[in-house]
Amino acid sequence: MTNLLSLLIWLxxxxxxxxxxxxxxxxxxxSKWLSLGIALATFGLCIPxxxxxxxxxxxxxxxxHANWIRLGNxxxxxALGVDGFAMPLIAxxxxxxxxxxxAGWEVIEKRVxxxxxxxxxxxxxxxxxxxxxxxxxxxxxxxxxLIPMFLIIGIxxxxxxxxxxxxxxxxxxxxxxxxxxxxxxxxxxxxxFAIEAMHKLPLEMGPQTLxxxxxxxxxxxxxxxxxxxxxxxxxxxxxPTGGSVVLAAIMLKMGTYGFLRFNLPITPDASADLANIxxxxxxxxxxxIGLVALVQKDMKKLIAYSSIAHMGFVTLGFFIVFKLVGAxxxxxxxxxxxxxxMISHGFVSAALFLxxxxxxxxxxxxxxxxxxxxxNSMPKFAAFFMLFAMxxxxxxxxxxxxxxxxxxxxxxxxxxxxxxxASVSLITGAAYTLWMYKRVVFGEVANKHVAELPDLNxxxxxxxxxxxxMTLALGLYPKALTTVMEPSVQHLIGCGVQSKLQTVVEGVxx
Amino acid sequence: MENIYxxxxxxxxxxxxxxxxxxxxxxxxxxxxxxxxxxxxxxxxSVYVFYQHAFNAAPVYNATVYEWAxxxxxxxxxxxxxxxxxAMMMVVVTxxxxxxxxxxxxxxxxxxxxQRFFSYISLFTFSMLMLVxxxxxxxxxxxxxxxxxxxxxxxxFWFKRPTAIYANMKAFLVNRVGDFGxxxxxAGVLMYFGSLDYYTVFGKAPAFAAxxxxxxxxxxxxWAVMTVICIxxxxxxxGKSAQVPLHVWLPDSMEGPTPISALIHAxxxxxxxxxxxxxxxxxxxLSETALSFVLVIGATTALFMGFLGLIQNDIxxxxxxxxxxxxxxxxxxxxxxxxxxxxFHLMTHAFFKALLFLGAxxxxxxxxxxxxxRAMGNLKKYMPITWITSLLGSLALIGTPGFAGFxxxxxxxxxxxxxxxxxxxxAYFCVLVGVFITxxxxxxxxxxxxHTKERFGESHHHSATHHDDAHHGSHTHGHAxxxxxxxxxxxxxxxxxxxxxxxxxxxxxxFFTEPMLIGxxxxxxxxxxxxxxxLEHLREEWHHVGGAAGxxxxxxxxxxxxxxxxxxxxxxVLFVMMPAVPKxxxxxxxxxxxxxxxxxxxxxxxxxxxxxxxxAVGKKLWHxxxxxxxxxxxxxxxxxxxxxxxxxxRKLQSGYLYHYxxxxxxxxxxxxxxLYFAR
Lengths: 510, 679
What we know:
The structure holds 2 protein chains of 2 kinds. By secondary structure, chain A is mainly α. Chain A has a domain at 275-510. Chain A contains 21 helices and 2 strands. In chain A, strands 1-2 form a two-stranded antiparallel sheet. In chain A, a hairpin with a 2-residue loop joins strand 1 and strand 2 (74-82). Chain A starts with a helix and ends in a 14-residue tail after the last helix. Chain B is mostly helical. Chain B is built from 26 helices and 4 strands. Chain B has helices spanning 2-21, 23-55, 84-107, 114-133, 137-155, 162-193, 198-210, 225-240, 249-252, 258-267, 272-279, 281-284, 288-309, 315-335, 339-366, 384-398, 404-418, 424-450, 492-518, 536-545, 547-554, 559-577, 580-588, 590-597, 602-652, 657-678; strands spanning 61-71, 74-82, 214-218, 221-224. Chain B has a two-stranded antiparallel ribbon with strand order 1-2. In chain B, helix 4 packs antiparallel against helix 5, helix 13 runs antiparallel to helix 14 (315-335) and helix 15 (339-366) runs antiparallel to helix 17 (404-418). At the A-B interface, helix 7, helix 12, helix 14, helix 17 and helix 18 of A face strand 1, helix 5, helix 6 and helix 25 of B.
């Protein structure tokens, strides 16, 4: 299939519109089944995408190209393609959509078709972000993607949703606008909006620094990095379960994906120059946020803070590359660790938000204090929750371990204290996760509501079981993933992050 | 052989999965059948493997099972290394595990979580085997944390009980502190040796250390790389093997059911640290500083945890402190480079300590879930098998000549005596005094439980703090019924494992002291630098007195024997003849007693500083950092500022045309003025 990527983008979008205007609210059952069918079909497309993927090259694959807009001699193209970075993220996005559709099945009562349509459209747009190889196309998907998310939080969210969406908007919009300026600047300067051309575009230190900052603001908010992280706990708390799942599993990865696609290869010298700051912010995220997570009383807030700390490993893994010049294996370990962390966090945080969702649907509370002794009434649920809690605490054999391990051992070579501070998460991560688990799941039955909780139904069991399998599979055999990413990682280390100020590498990379 | 090794590991895992996921379908009998079958297969094959390695000189097996990840030129694998040390550990782990499985049938038969329990202990067996059979640091870490997970699940097995779920979290977190160091050590190994494979690392280490490489953790203070790496690795061992100051979790872990106290918190998991250091002997031998550190920590644990055993009244806690102290002995052996003695003590200890724990469990069943030794007495009359086997276990523990514990402990004491590294004098003092203390607390418990007058009819002045080992919403023996019920001997599934463990507790050393300590059983596995050869003296003596029997006879002339005997006699005098005296002593030395009662204050300190401290810091950071500074000042501040500016700007947009025209004219004026002057 030559138009696989286009299909992955437009099938869910068209499907979403079909749900919205076709089956709609008149026949919600049909809307749900249609949505599930589209989600499954989209995910099904990822199978040939994965099996047909050439793991020996860093070049873009499944490339599509069509002229879109011409401004003078500058073209903006509908250009798609994936490498080892983007392909797994597209698969993750499509996978998550299936879970989200299932998770909303009985839970969403008002405007079911709208809800499903919003998620399907969002899936297409997110796939577009990962597949775009033209900067303007990327930007369009990037901005459009926010609309369904606003709607999801704004319509199906909690009582304080207006504050949360506004905060989200304020944060993201500031960053995105500057990114647009940077893109236009480079588009005009280099005469092309192809991201690859921007990688090759020679840039002096001054412009590099400004461009870096522009991108950084856009992406750091998304990750989110300390200190621009405070929108995330609020957004999660107000978002419906499905919204939280997509937010945690996919949207946060947009930020780190942006670093990978734009900051590092376009502004390598500025990245190297500012690496210390990014590393410091990443380590603050791990340590500071870890402690903040410890004292949260709201489960969703706790997991949101935990997400920030885990994403700190991703940015740390990316930027220690500049401290590992000449140590390519360690640099690759840092990158691979960061990338695996992105995927594993997609599974684990999604699973944890779904677990909270399972409890919220029954008790209508996210407060840890309202629970206690859930294991007595929901033993199956408790078992799944334990697995995901342990994965969140980075237990070897689960997905959560792989990335943290690789980043920590790589960081050790960069600087002992980076590894030392990053390893603090071994303790804090276990502390906040297990303390929450203890208070919620263990103990005597806390109140009569807990005593009456029904255990997982078949639908919930299926969702959590699928995630459990993925969490264990990635933990036990990460090679399946690292093999896919390895050529792109090696290319980025060999070329992408090499200085643009020296001309030595010209010909090979530029 | 590869299939055999795989079968050893996978059989318990399959049993665990079946019992865990399909417990309801296969029922209680089904669950214990599949798990016991799995562990029995593993045990039988382990014995076969051990036989092949120990007697048929099977070649060392070192191979990859599958590649876990490949990054750059670094291959990370799951693979097995099976040599004599591994084979010995496999036998210890699977045989004790098998005994515990059988015992559990009797011990847990009333418990509603029966299948879950069997699933956990089989999962533990799998994890522990992965740990000891690893051929690389990654898999070692996997096994390391996996046993920690199962330990966590099992300590908190009775998850309704607040003390249990406090203890299991504490155990996991304290172990995580150890793992924190361990992971840094592994990262150091990877950085300096470029590999995670044992043999590659061990092969490169001597040449690397010869150059005395240093690293600066603080600018201007170069530290030897090998020292940093070894101490980091050892911090991991301190967590898992409960060495001071990371020992605090082990006494609390007694909240778990007794079978796992025997299996995990006495025989196998807690000895993982000892095993690990012995496995890493090629690295530790390269840093005398690290060895001294190991030695001092071990010696401190051996003596000071032994003291605490003297004042415990909970039968399981006495055995738990005894375990801490004995782990200290093993670590001392590692510190003086007598790795062989350390792992030999690990093996003998696994048998007699599992025996003592299971014996304690049998007593608890017999006493209808009473754990306070002050409420026991004269149980020899009611529980003869438990009595005899526990006596044998105690004799082995205190190092009675001829018993297993004697050979292993004597070797350690001899080695410390022969050692010259920094701290060996202190360690020698600790291990010698420790012998007396061990005998004292062991026989205090023994006399109070099996001899002295029957006290189980008496009122419970202590029942507020000491509770049943088993929870039991369902069980019928409440405290109120105690007076009516006499203790009884346990069923055969409980006493059979006691007998089976008593045999090696007595005689395992008769056969294995010679090859393991004197001979070259560990040749090529454990590496000892020439100037650290502390077991040499023992070897000479062994040949001089003519083997195991002569060695036992010769012991009568040595100090440890008289110290142990003194301890037993003291216990008899203090607790049988003059039971009023100990109370007097406690009163006279009340400050010391208080200090010991508070367990030297470790728990209070940790709770106040680390637990409450990090919560307090977390709250501060959240309220001050996130809410006040970032949200309050930056985010909402920005929003407010934007709002305010917008409110001002809005006034400009009055809608009156002449306002706009006026503004345009002013603007043009300014613009042209600027152009004029800028020319």
